[in-house]
Amino acid sequence: MAGYKRSIYLINPKFQLRFSLYVCLFLFLSSIVYPITIYDVMSNFLDSSVKQKEKIELLYERCGSTCADLQGKDKTISAKQLQQSLEAKRKSLISVLALWQIGFTALVFIMCIFLTHKVAGPLFKLQKFFTAIAEGGDNGRLFFRSGDYFTELADSYNDAINQLKEDYKNDFVYLSEVSAYINNLSLVVPDDKKAVLNEINKRLNEIQGKFNEKS
């Protein structure tokens, strides 16, 4: 009975979009600390490396010709070149982290829409069934899609409707008995009382007609 597929995922856009945005906002704010921390670590590492390189260059300059051989072996790049290289790597890393953050947040948003439609869908269908009852209709048994949440609502609804229908039947039988009793009673009462009994019987027939319409 629950094998149909729901093709519309935004059943209740106001609820689903607001819930998804709140989740994504909380996730974004709580996880933004990681890119900031990495950026800060990279900045400290860059400053430390450049300063260290500047100290080495200063040492080479102070050594003069006595450090020429050592300078030729170890001084592969200048402090400025090192700084530019680390800056480029830092910007590249930050770009990757920013894209990953945006992509992950978008993925979470899509998953929230998918999950919330499993909540909004059953509630929307339950609302339609209640509306049908209020308008005097009957959509039959309520069932939800496989995988939807709150499936117990469908069972509770069906049990309640079945109980109401059973009560309708019992009340209808009782009204039929009362109507038959009044018809028999009208045969023995004086004529001035028959008008009252006929009016009561008329009202009972109207109530029975309403029961027939609902059943």
Architecture overview:
With 215 residues, the protein is an all-alpha fold. It folds into two domains: 128 residues; 66 residues. Helices cover 80% and strands 0% of the residues. The protein has six helices and no strands. The longest helix has 56 residues.
Could you give the topology of this structure?
Elements (H helix, E strand, L loop, with lengths): L12 H19 L1 H31 L4 H7 L4 H56 L16 H35 L5 H24 L1
Question: What features would you highlight for this structure?
Answer:
2 domains, 215 residues, 6 helices, single chain, mainly alpha
Short description:
With 215 residues, the protein is mainly α.
The overall number of domains is: 2
What does the radius of gyration come to? Answer: 40 Å
Mean pLDDT figure: 77
Described by strand count, sense and barrel closure, the largest sheet is: none
- The percent range for helix content is over 70%
Number of strands: 0
Secondary-structure element string: HHHHHH
- Spans of at least 5 consecutive residues whose pLDDT stays below 50 are none
Broad shape: rod-shaped
What is the CA–CA distance across the termini?
Answer: 23 Å
Strand content: under 5%
Secondary-structure-based class equals mainly alpha
Give the number of helices: 6
